[in-house]
Amino acid sequence: MSLAFALRMAWRETRGAARHFAVLFGCVALRVAALVSVGTFAANLDRTLTREARALTGGDLELRAPQPLDPAARAAVDALVRAGAVTTTVRDLVAMTRLPARGATLLVELKAVERAYPLYGRVETAPPSPLDGLLADRGDAGGAVVEAPLLQRLGIAVGDPLVIGSARFIVTGVLVREPDRPVGLVTLGPRVIVAADALERTGLLQVGSRVRYRTLARLPAAVTARAAADDLARAIGDPSVRIAAFDESQPGLRRFFSQLATYLGLVGLASLLVGGVGIASTVTTFLRRQLATIAILKCLGAGSRVLLATYLIQTLSLALVGSLVGAALGVAAQPLLVRALAPFAPFVLEARWDAGTLARGIALGLLAALLCALWPLLSVRAVPPSLILRRDVDESRWRARRPWAAALPIVSGLAALAVWQAGSFRLGGIFAGAALAALAILLGLSRALMRLARRVPRTRGLAWRHGLAGLDRPGGHTVRVVVAVGLGVMLLVAIALLEANLGRQLAYEQKREAPSFFFIDVQPDQREPFTHLVGDVSGVVPVVTPVVRARLAAIDGTPVTRELIDRRKREAPEKNWYLTREYMLTWAAAAPPANAITRGRWWTADEASARPRVSVDDEAAKYFGVGVGGTLTFDVQGVLLEAEVMNLRKIDWQSLSANFFMVLSPGALDGAPTIYLATARVPPDLESRLQDRVVAAFPNVTAIPLRGVLERVSEVLAQISFAVRFMALFSIAAGLVVMAGALAATRYQRLYESVILKTLGATRWAIARAFAVEYACLGAAAGLGGTALAAVLAWIVLRFVLDTPWTLEPETLVLGVTLTTLVSLAIGLLATVRLLGRKPLSVLRQE
To answer: How far apart are CA 396 and CA 398, in angstroms?
Structure first.
């Protein structure tokens, strides 16, 4: 009987207050849409990565090394071949391509493949044709398949010649899709694919040349990839050879998309938070309107539990419908996210719906609605039946009394939802703590605004007097508007501040000391003629730095073995590259200018001559667990070199100059195979000419134009920012819905005020100005609070996550406050403009 009554009452109450509950419906729909859109994208991405894992790897197994496999490793691979495996070797390097007719040059990413490539997947070309046929020699020229941007930048077409290094090629096709291309956020240039034997003719494979060797294997059906990888790891002792099964390859790609999905999910959680504020506000306002109805029902015998069940059923039913609509919106938003993030994926991103993600989003919407509505609904128990007899006295003084013991499980439940969505106790806890802090600050700001409006001296002008008084009216909406809109503003302004700061770091023209070019692989016999050529063309003397390639062999005498690497990988997978990378070593008698010594001191000439010393980047030293006085051992082309750690340095990577993780003392690398790295800053109008002249004279030298690289980084950041802003718009939309709902909740109060003022002689324009003052103050307060929190959030991300200097962006802060004020003013006036046309008599007769 009680349940049937609760169901009937819930339906009647909802039908009679449909406009009022539109706000609750909108808040739930928007936040579920945000969560479902991110969750669906992440699920589709994970499904595609799993399905395309072998093609993305290029085989069941991948062996990656900075140099050709040694005899022991080669023997282990040959054993796999005898067991029925098929193998192929791929070599990747950065090179320069040149037009023989015009001399124009372009930086490219060169890939040399054998006939068996690809083992999985398919290389798509235009025109479609077998890859080995496209790469076959045409007389004295090799075949080359290139990406379309190369043709566009050089102004050539299929069939035209190219020169790479010392070899001539003919463009035979356009590369459409390459299944196993290692993915990075920024590519240095268009891809060019050539045959393995053609690479030998280029002359690019010299001592010290930076080449990545990838040996790919397709295993017989009876052999599992993980077992074969474990066997190879035991047989190959060289830790510089990284062995991965197909389901653990491309870790950078997986980590990037996983982190991006996590961050987008956190932005979606912010919309959950804003929507929760809207739900709590809507339920509170509705209950205030229903005080008399609740009192009457209690007088007629309805218990508090039945009434609480009634309003819970009502809230959850609306939340369910809103969640379903939000889930549909989230699926519909997939194409936008896919379009923004497609350039980062080496495969076609899908936009399919996922049943598990939809169920998760709907469940989050329902649970969050329940927890956010429960606290105001508990006040139903405190409504006295006598309120119906003393309505005019008690209703204005009534304050909701709730059991504070219920606050802890509600807050704990919301925190648990944050952890569930974030997928991590750490991230969820950080978000919950930050959300509570932001709520507390915005709540305090709204209370301060109400107190200020109460105490500010009353002016003679009607607009200011009534506008400020409206901020502190009984049952007003100051708190909910400032909190909800402020949270949304915080997200968008924080994103804008991060973009502005990162853009400033990438602004090449503002870095007066940054070089225009990095020239790599300058051979010893080319140093002098190279320096003269750069000087003749640009009038600038390049900075030439000797470098020796090596890998880390031991830390404080402990060998860097595969077991050590695997153990450290489990502890901190994102920093494992410190142990596996190939280091470029140099030497110097004095500390580099863009470095600050944090521990120890630089060596003297006598100390340098006594034994090898090394200066280490402080972040690398922290990961290694080595300090001043410790030792690092390097493997330099098979020769071990032990050096004492003399000091630790903080490197200013934003200087964009030639920086090194390891700098050794003079004499430590004597006799080692040395090449040179050169940098030069030249006027912009001479950059193309210098690049063309250098490549023509020294085909093996690679010129990396810094300006172009930074432009591509900026493009990548813009694409990522679009995806983040897209998610933040859900939060802003939820905040605006809350604001519109708050204005609608006080509609009759405003209507009554306006007709009273009209009766006393006020004009519509005067009343509109009074409302405008109130809305502008609300917007300004939300804008100030939101932008202040955004500045703190951006500073934390830049300082502790990106390790990038913070720069105040006053234009962004002012724009955030101004736009919030104007938008709030516009929405407020649009919501009340119809009230100003009502006749006083028709309203007063209702009283």
So the answer is: 6
